[in-house]
Inverse folding.
């Protein structure tokens, strides 16, 4: 049986996607200078940046007037990623030591005001975009 694959076409130009990323970084005052990163951090940053830009080019990720990423998953309502505050970071304490994925979902839930279950039930194609956004906040 031959399965048809949906062809993905960009709806946003490369330069526009780059500007959206820069607007996000500037608004959230994130430190993304490669000079301050070791080799592994540079590779991780480049990978997360590619995920972010690909989602913008596909038209599924935008940056709102406050500089907050807004992502439209394949299913469900859009998610607005607010800058984490101390209370959001404390949400990570709800998970036991060594439960890093659970900690991340708690923080993502706090940032999007949706709760960790939203991310626990999310398919990887959407989750990887959310995780990339989280990585920028935690690393920058």
């Amino acid at each position: 049986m031959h399965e048809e694959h949906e062809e993905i076409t960009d709806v946003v130009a490369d330069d526009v996607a780059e500007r959206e990323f820069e607007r996000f970084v500037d608004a959230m005052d994130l430190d993304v200078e490669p000079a301050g990163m070791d080799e592994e951090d540079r590779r991780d940053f480049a990978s997360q940046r590619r995920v972010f830009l690909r989602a913008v080019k596909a038209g599924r990720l935008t940056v709102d007037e406050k500089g907050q990423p807004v992502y439209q998953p394949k299913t469900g309502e859009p998610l607005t990623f607010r800058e984490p505050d101390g209370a959001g970071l404390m949400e990570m304490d709800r998970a036991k030591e060594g439960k890093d994925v659970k900690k991340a979902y708690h923080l993502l839930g706090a940032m999007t005001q949706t709760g960790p279950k939203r991310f626990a039930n999310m398919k990887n194609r959407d989750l990887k975009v959310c995780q990339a956004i989280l990585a920028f906040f935690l690393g920058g």
Observations:
- The longest strand covers residues 61-63.
